[in-house]
Amino acid sequence: MRRKAILLGVLTMLAALLAPVAQAASLTEVTGFGTNPSGLRMHLYVPDKVTQKPGVLVAAHYCTGSGPAFHSGTEFARLADQHGFVVIYPSATRSGNCFDVSSPQALKHDGGSDPVGIVSMVKYVLQHHNGDPNRVYATGSSSGAMMTNVLLGAYPDVFKGGAAFAGVPFGCFATTDGSGWNSTCANGNLLKSPQQWGDLVRAAYPGYHGPRPRMQVWHGTADTTLRYPNFGEEIDQWTNVHGLSTTPTSTDHPKPEWTRTRYGTQVEGISMAGTGHNALGAGMAASALKFLGLVP
Question: Which NCBIfam families has this protein been placed in (predicted)?
Answer without folding.
Answer: esterase_phb (TIGR01840)
